[in-house]
Design goal:
By secondary structure, the chain is of the alpha/beta class. It folds into two domains: 4-77 and 196-300, Rossmann fold (3-Layer(aba) Sandwich); 80-186, Glutamyl-tRNA Synthetase, Domain 3 (Glutamyl-tRNA Synthetase, domain 3), CATH 3.90.800. It contains eleven helices and twelve strands. The chain has helices spanning 17-32, 51-64, 79-91, 102-107, 130-137, 167-170, 185-196, 211-220, 251-257, 260-270, 282-285; strands at 4-7, 36-40, 70-72, 95-98, 143-146, 152-157, 161-166, 174-177, 200-204, 227-231, 234-235, 299-300. Strands 1-2-3 form a three-stranded parallel sheet, with helices on one face. β1 (4-7), α1 (17-32) and β2 form a beta-alpha-beta unit. The longest helix is centred in the N-terminal third of the chain and has 16 residues, at 17-32. It is elongated and about 65 Å long. It starts with a strand and ends in a 6-residue tail after the last strand. The structure holds glutamic acid (GLU). Glutamic acid binds next to loops. Residues 8-10, 42, 189, 203, 207 line the site of glutamic acid.
Length: 306
Amino acid sequence: MGCLGRFAPTPSGRMHLGNVFSAMMAWLSARSRGGEMLLRIEDLDTLRCPKENADVLRDDLRWLGLDWDHEQPCQSSRSEYYEEILARLGETGTVFPCWCTRGDLKNAPNAPHASDGHPIYPGTCRELTAEERAARLALRPPLWRLRVPDEVIAFTDGHYGHYEENLARECGDFILRRADGVFAYQLAVTADDIAAGVTEVVRGRDLLSSTPRQIYLYRLLGAETPDYFHVPLLTAPDGRRLSKRDRDLDLGVLRQRYTAEELLGLLAHAAGLLERRESASLRELLPLFAWDRIPQEDITLDPFGS
Ligand code: GLU
C-alpha cells in the first residue's frame, strides 16, 4: 500500500503557527516519499468548533499550498461509525460504564497521578454487578471507559525513537465516550485513521503520550498501526509554548504580514531545513526535507523578530 499522511486539525480557532508547522511537516514527510494526504476536521466538540472555522481552516491550508487528495467526513458527522467501533471494543470485554465524576477521582485518597497530572482511574466502577449498574443507570447516564492491561506498550517513533508506557500504571482505564455522548479523541482518531487507511501520523510531540493508548486500540480492533513521527513544539523566546491564546500568531494576523512563502521559509529555517531565513515554496523545500535534519528539542521562534 502507498503512503497516506494526514492533517487532523481541531478547528477551535484560527490555525496557529504551531499547527502550521505540524501540518507542513506532515505534508513534506508524505509528499517526499510520493505519498498522498488526507484532511479530516476533528470537530468532536461542536460547541468549540463552529462550522465556519473549518472553512477558514481549509482556506488557510490552501493559501499555504498544503494540498490534500482526500477529505474524510468531519468527526461531528460520524457518531454512528464510532458507536459501531465502541460496540466492537465492547465485544472484547474491555469496555465498562463508569459514573465517577472528575471530582470523585480528584478527591480519591492516595490516587496516583499520570505524568500529565490527571489522576489514574482507581477502578471504582470496573467490577460493578449488573444490579449496581442498573441502579446507577436509573440515576444518570454513564461515561464509557476502556480497561487497560498491566503491560508495557512500546513503539519506535520515527523521530523520537523508542517510547513506552505501562498503560495500567502510567495512564489508567481511559475514557472512550463522555457522559454527554461525545466520543473521546482517542477513540475517534484511531477509528478514523483505520477507516481511511492512514499509514503515517505526523503530529506535535504533545501527543506522543497518547500513542500507546491508540496502539492498544489498534490491537483490540485487529488493525495495523501506522508509522508515527512526532514533531517538536514551537516556543516563544521567553520559553512559553506558543498556543492558541497568542492571537498575534494565528494565521489571521500572519497572513497580513507575510506571504505564504515567507512563512514557510521562516518555519523551514527554524526547523533546520534552510540555512538562511528566506522565502521558500513547498516545491523547493521538498528535496531538502529529511527527518534527521529536524531537531528533537522544541524550537524557539520569534516570527516578528529579525
Ligand atoms: N486534532 C488534534 C489536534 O489538532 C490532532 C490529532 C492527531 O493528530 O492525532 O491537536
